[in-house]
Amino acid sequence: GNSVTQMEGPVTLSEEAFLTINCTYTATGYPSLFWYVQYPGEGLQLLLKATKADDKGSNKGFEATYRKETTSFHLEKGSVQVSDSAVYFCALSSGGSNYKLTFGKGTLLTVNP
Amino acid sequence: DAGITQSPRHKVTETGTPVTLRCHQTENHRYMYWYRQDPGHGLRLIHYSYGVKDTDKGEVSDGYSVSRSKTEDFLLTLESATSSQTSVYFCASTFGEYSPLHFGNGTRLTVT
What we know:
Chain A is an all-beta fold. In chain A, about 0% of the residues lie in helices and about 50% in strands. The mean pLDDT of chain B is about 95.
């Protein structure tokens, strides 16, 4: 079945540091890939997505490229801010009539000033 | 953002009692989901619905049932609550493929 593996946290960075959170997946067919972000006390929000190989999703300075050859969708940001502190989830979709997402375990990011 | 609300936001209940959590969305989304979030496990799918009266099991469905009698409402019932069902429960909805999931703010359930 489908599965998502993302790097274990927590990750602690200083403001303006470079961020990478690794995500690899196992899936049949051609899934769409997503990154979601969860701020304290809230539900998840979509951060970015990519629907086919070599697509790059981007939003709020975050980027991730759908790499089919390495089955990866790593999240990157060139300069993190304190406000980026949150839990980040990688996810993939199984399509068709029974559309649903499979999530990774989440990575807690803390950015210190 | 999509209007999706969960109720209650917090609940404490005793082992063996039935509990129902409600999810309500105002976006006419076809698909609705119930996930639970636990430390070290991320989000795990309990049940989902792909239309009114059309539901299916997720990966952790034992001890849970769902019902969807209207497009906007998706109910999750714990038939006889156990301590292992202490968790944060999230509802989500979407139009479908390629559309993002929109999440509620969660229900924190404690079973004592």
